[in-house]
Amino acid sequence: MSGESMNNLQQSMDANHSSFGMQNGLWGLTCSSKLSMSQSGNTFEQKLLFARGIDTIEPQNIEAILSSQFSDFDLGLRPVHFDPLMGSGIFTQDGEQWQHSRELLRPQFMSNRMENFEQVKSAVDALIDCVPEDGVVDLQPLFFRLTFETTLFLLFGKHLPSLKSEGITGRESEFADAFNRGQDYLAQRGRLGDFHWVIGGKDFRRVCKICHDFVDGAVQKALGRYDPSKSTDSTGSYTFVDAIIEKTRNPKVLRDQCLNILLAGRDTTACCLTWTLRLLVQHPEVLSKLRREIENSVGVGSEASDPVLSQVKKLPYLSIVIKEVLRLYPSVPVNSRAATKTTTLPTGGGPDGTAPILVRKGEAVGYCVYAMHRRKDLFGSDADYFRPERWENDALKDVGWGYLPFNRGPRVCLGQQFAELEAAYTVVRLLQKFETIEMTEDKPFNMPVGQEKQVLTLVVSSGDGCWVKMKKFDV
Ligand code: HEM
């Protein structure tokens, strides 16, 4: 992971009043001080050269762009920025094309197949086996490999070309490296807005080709084994790619949809897991409370049995821990849409910033979930702190559009259920297997929450990884 390293997103936003919408693309955070801005509470109008845009952390406005005025907005330049790597898939489409993809993919996410969960289990076991004897390990790259492997499984099942027998958990594959680099390029293109074409040289073309060749190989295999007379393939299993093949055999369409899901599913969950472990280690009282919950429900120690799906779903403290992690570190921290016609947003205009605000056709509206999730008027005076208990007894039930880790509205995340389950299961297994998880002496992370080094690509990951020392339970 490379990308833009910064002390933290919030500081960058405060310093610049942010500018996450000006690029008329996705996650286009700029760091310019030459912007002309008019500030109205939580919504800002910005001008850069001839472009005007709106940035907002106002739930009402975000609800408008994502739901109540859905047709007034689209993805802006995202499809153009992402095209060389991702082509046309659910993540880059608008209008009828997007609707078609959503209808195609939605049933796959709904059918919560046990086979997927079994695969998550074996990938987590492999992760645990990667922890060295002395227990000192950076968990962040391991989480990235875990979610890469599980998302690939979701897409292709066991039928992957060129993966070694031990799976990609054993080594970073050429494809994984290329996909990482490709995403860095996409993030840079997003930040450059109309000038995205500056990024797109030989190396970018090379990584796109590696990714395309790999996915094309898996698609060809799936096409080869497809039997139209059966609703499962001839080996009895049924994967995302099989489902899409029932609607189209066009290899480019299949490649694009698969890459789009891989993009959506991998880094988001890996970042969630990284921040979860960092926050737990930084807050031993939360870690102990969580450990007690797991001990009392599914047991801990070398003899503890692998939890079943229904047990993982019924861990109330774990569920608010993950909720709180995604409040402080929403995997997609910055996002944007562009107006398809001249329209208004409910608030942010007029002398006191409470009147509707104009958005002209083509202008971008950026929204920063990261900053919104730290608003003290929404989450309390201790909003900057990690305190899962704030979610207890439905205390935040009225926060509505103020809490948005998975988006809402027609384009709400399709993988939410899968991601929550994968993250919860991984945490349970780690706490079952390891008696202690703590900071290392060499690389402690004592910075106050939010002030640590962060890396912003399409997601926000940790700039210092997640170095911990873990001790297994005695056998
Ligand atoms: C903690 C983990 C995750 C988080 C925080 C997350 C968050 C999000 C967000 C914010 C969006 C909206 C993006 C936009 O419209 O601009 C999104 C969309 C999406 N996510 Fe997730 N996601 C996670 C995991 C996953 C996983 C594991 C998958 C699939 C394997 C997935 C599949 C999708 C898809 C297909 C969309 C596009 C939906 C559409 O445009 O209709 N996500 N996700």
Description of the molecule:
- It is a single chain.
- Helix content is 45%, strand content 14%.
- By secondary structure, it is of the alpha+beta class.
- Strands 2-3-4-10-7-5 form a 6-stranded mixed β-sheet.
- The protein is globular and about 65 Å long.
- The two termini are 36 Å apart.
- Protoporphyrin IX containing FE is lined by residues 90-91, 102, 151, 154, 261, 264-265, 268-269, 272, 326, 331-332, 335, 405-407, 411, 413-415, 418-419.
- Residues 90-91, 102, 151, 154, 261, 264-265, 268-269, 272, 326, 331-332, 335, 405-407, 411, 413-415, 418-419 line the site of protoporphyrin IX containing FE.
- Belongs to the cytochrome P450 family.
- One of its GO terms (biological process) is mycotoxin biosynthetic process.
- Keywords: Heme, Iron, Metal-binding, Monooxygenase, Oxidoreductase.
User: Percent range for helical residues?
Assistant: 40-55%
Count of extended strands: 14
- Spatial arrangement of strands, main beta sheet: 2-3-4-10-7-5
Shape, per Cα inertia axes: globular
CATH superfamily membership: Cytochrome P450
Radius of gyration, in Å, reads 22 Å
Largest sheet: 6 strands, mixed
- Helix/sheet category: alpha+beta
Outline the fold blueprint.
Elements: E1 4-6, H1 9-16, E2 36-40, E3 43-48, E4 51-56, H2 59-68, E5 73-74, H3 78-86, H4 95-110, H5 114-129, E6 136-138, H6 139-156, H7 174-192, H8 202-225, H9 240-245, H10 251-282, H11 284-297, H12 309-313, H13 316-328, E7 334-339, E8 343-349, E9 355-359, E10 364-368, H14 369-372, H15 376-379, H16 416-433, E11 434-439, E12 454-456, E13 460-462, E14 467-472
Parallel strand pairs: 4-10
Antiparallel strand pairs: 1-12, 2-3, 3-4, 5-7, 6-14, 7-10, 8-9, 11-14, 12-13
Helix pairs in contact: 3-7, 5-6, 5-16, 6-10, 7-8, 8-10, 10-13, 10-16
